[in-house]
Amino acid sequence: MFLPLTVRNKLWIAGLLLSALALPLASSNSYLMHVMILSMIFAVFASAWNLVTGFGGLKTFGHHAFFGIGAYASALIAIRTGLSPWVTMWLGALAAAAAGVFIGLPILRIRSMPHVAIVTLGFAEIVRIVISNLQTVTRGEMGLWGIPAFGGFTAPGVGTVAFTPADKVPFYYLALGMLVLSLWAIAALMRSRTGLTLVAMRDAEDAAQSLGVNLTRNKLLVFAVSSFIVGLAGAFYAHYIGILTPSAAVGVDLMILVIAMTLVGGLGTLSGPVAGAFALTIAVELLRSIEDYRMLLYGAASVVIVLFLPKGLVTLRRRSTRGVEARIP
User: Fold this and answer.
1) Nearest CA to 48 among 191, 187, 177, 172?
2) Neighbours of 248 (CB within 10 A)
3) How far apart are CA 168 and CA 151, in angstroms?
4) What's the burial of 228, exposed, middle or buried (CB within 10 Å: 0-12/13-18/19+)?
5) pLDDT (tens digit, 9 = 90+) per residue, 165-212?
């Protein structure tokens, strides 16, 4: 599925990673850090959704349910038991993965992709309604507040690292680590035999089954991995924002946003969802000053990109590279 990395690709990756690591050193402005952190959270979410839809061909429209489950599970466990968010974040991700297996067992046997899309969307709506109605536990739309922040620690050569609203740099580096880890896990999975099987199922499901591929088992595996990653992003979001509401954590508009990010960046590519997440998150913030026209321009820009760059923003670098090579005598 993935070709071996060339020297040029390695230099691109190293350059981007070094730039990301150096950004807080150039400017630790709280607003800039906040926008970057949200971009990375959405990038993790979009990359995990792209794993099942872009690489696996499973049209699921209910992944925001796993984001909300991860967020609420981690927050509630931390509040009720006093466990550190460093622990509950992983428990929230495991809860999301368990929910993915629970809903995946019946629906991934369905061969009709439109039915899979509708069932997963319905599941997400059920999760949202349950969270909204369990007001004694989740406080519903009033908001679950008092969510503990990540505990500080002392790092050699750095000193004390504290996660406070006044200093978002530690959150930035933690989000960056989560993004890099998620992309590495997805790339490793797609380079494995499971990844090749996944692409074979996407491109020719009947042919793959005729060769002895267990469709349900492989679909369920990638669905669980994707749910885990989305749940991890949701758990981080809960402890970063500090307050949760069903509409914000499990709202369908969140899923629409992630789909737009993936399509704009490039469906079925590793870097596409990341590029789309950063582009659209930053675009929303840049257009904030025009109030009512912001979403209109946001939607128009998304449509234009999809029309003229159907394979996403990631094709721009390939086109520019080909153009440079064509001009070299």
Assistant:
1) 187
2) 16
3) 14
4) buried
5) 888 999 999 999 999 999 999 999 998 888 888 888 888 877 777 777
The first and second tokens of residue 305, run together, are 């990109």
d(CA 128, CA 224): 20
Report which of 94, 170, 159, 140 is spatially closest to residue 249, judged by C-alpha positions.
140
Per DSSP, the three-state class of 119 is helix
State the burial class of residue 308 (Cβ atoms within 10 Å of its Cβ: 0-12, 13-18, 19+): exposed
DSSP states of 78-112? HHHH---HHHHHHHHHHHHHHHHHHHHHHHTT---
For 97-121, write each residue's pLDDT tens digit: 999 999 988 887 777 778 888 889 9
pLDDT in tens, 197-251: 888 888 887 777 777 777 778 888 999 999 999 999 999 999 999 999 999 999 9
- In the prediction, which pLDDT does 2 show? 63
Residue 320: count other Cβ atoms within 10 Å of its Cβ. 10
The strand pairing partners of 155, in sequence order, are: 159
Residue 175 in 3-state DSSP? Answer: helix
Q: Please say whether the beta carbons of 280 and 261 come within 8 A.
A: yes
Q: How far apart are CA 42 and CA 88, in angstroms?
A: 20
The pLDDT value given to residue 295: 67
119's tokens? 């069932």
CA dist list (Å): 122 to 45, 62, 133, 220, 279:
19, 7, 17, 19, 29
Of 252, 259, 293, 294, give the one whose Cα is nearest residue 276. 259
Phi then psi dihedrals of residue 167, to 5 deg:
-125, 105
The helix/strand/coil state of 27 is coil
In angstroms, rounded to a whole number, what is the distance separating the alpha carbons of residues 110 and 119? 10
- Ordered DSSP codes for 266-302: -TT-SSHHHHHHHHHHHHHHHTGGGGGGHHHHHHHHH
- Tell me the DSSP string of 131-165: HHH-HHHH-GGG-B--PPPPPPEEETTTEEE--BT
